[in-house]
Amino acid sequence: KNYITEVEIRSVNNPNDKTTIGLSTYLLSPRNVVDMDIKIPDILIPGREEILSATFTNNIDTAFDNLNVFYTSSLFNIEGSLSLKGFEKKEVSVPVTLDPLTTADRYSLSVRVFDQGKIKGSKSSPFVVGLNPNLREVEGIQNRFLQIHIQIIRENEGNTVVSKTVHYPLHFFQYFFITTDPPAEIITINGQKMYQWVFDIPPGDIYRIEIITDYRPLFFMLVGLLFLIGLFFYFKRKEIKIIKQVFKVHVSHEKEGATELKILLHVINKTRKEMYHVKVVDLLPRTLHLETDFGTLKPAKIEEGTTGMRLLWELEKLDSGDERVLTYKI
Q: Which residues contact 212 (CB under 8 A, 6 or more apart)?
């Protein structure tokens, strides 16, 4: 039965300063009106649905149409309702799913039964929450221009610290272009170079590893090198190309061994621009005799020296890709 007890609280310094409050007291009969038998799995695993079983027994010949049942612990609070006939026994199953991060430890479950605010029975039972080493592993790869981005994620969704080791193969060529965050240890397993990370993950934490292989610096270096090589050959190539050809024209029978030769000088502008005042020089040894047949363009100067003869042509203009042929006979 429910009783109200009045308690008077009075000030020590001022006896006239006082107040009265009512305390509600529940007085139980020597035994519960409703008895309970609670069955809990030996170990509750966080994150997994577990079934709690309670058998309620009505000890009197009075029916209860709407009993309020409270399942209470420091981890959860569940409310339910129950009807019992006189001396009836009834089993009730209660599903419970603990938070995956619930600490492994011993806890207590209290089951109380009320009828219209009056307690009809209560019972407590201990239970154990076990370890839940639940590790989520995710790996992703992104391919970009000359870049490979790998992300390795380990997330502890359990209630205990998880120790983990991650390996990633390392090839010789990659060594110069790969970066990792966090830094990795390099080890050898069966002759294969490997990156290694060893770490602990507390409950609820995430450990991320990023591996980036970037070939872009090599690409830009090669492009720059090819550009410099191209510039080198561009500036080293001859702006004017001259091809010299010699043809036998006539063999004289009057003069033994005398042969008439025709010399062709092909002057080609290999640049992409017009060339002005181009001078072409050809040298003849003193043993050769120069004829006066010079074709369409005669030399601007013919100079004789101690070692031979020097022929000089002057071309006023030579267009890009243009070719002039200078001829003379000896």
A: 147, 148, 149, 150, 178, 179, 180
